[in-house]
């Protein structure tokens, strides 16, 4: 059995209570615990101890980042969480510097991660329709994929040596929500990975 850390990156706003992201977290937690995995859930908008969060990253075999997409990225409280936890973890717990050596100071940038053998998965909720991605004729993303949009987040986890699992996304969650269909797809996605 494996250890899973689920980060719920929802930032509460008056217009967004976070029910969909909470539901996706609940689905993942129920799915994983039913298969006898150990699961810890963290709300990145809540108070936390930096050292405790680093210990959870060390404990986890797989991290699931469940996040709404706010202005093409993570909500500010989730970004703050990453900045605080990951910067503190550069003391050797999450990485040993940036991987470069004095003998070759221009080579191997980003290869100092100590979380090799661990994996991560992004699960994202968008107001954008699925058709806005991977379509060169579409105005905003111009043919880019969800993973292209979240390239910086992928690089954060790669910096620590983690392996990427297939990204999951719910689309059009405000203007054309298909909640039950999205939750069913999420269960299938989890089943394909774990």
Description:
With 194 residues, the chain is α/β, with parallel strands linked by helices. It is 35% helix and 16% strand. The chain has helices at 19-34, 50-59, 76-88, 146-149, 151-159, 179-193; strands at residues 3-8, 38-43, 62-68, 119-125, 163-164, 168-170. Strands 1, 2, 3, 4, 5 and 6 form a 6-stranded parallel beta sheet that branches. Helix 1 runs parallel beside helix 6 (179-193) and helix 2 (50-59) crosses helix 3. The radius of gyration is 17 Å and the shape is globular.
Q: What is the typical, i.e. mean, pLDDT?
A: 96
What does the radius of gyration come to? 17 Å
| N-end to C-end Cα span | 10 Å
User: Number of DSSP strands?
Assistant: 6
Please work out how many helical segments DSSP would assign.
Answer: 6
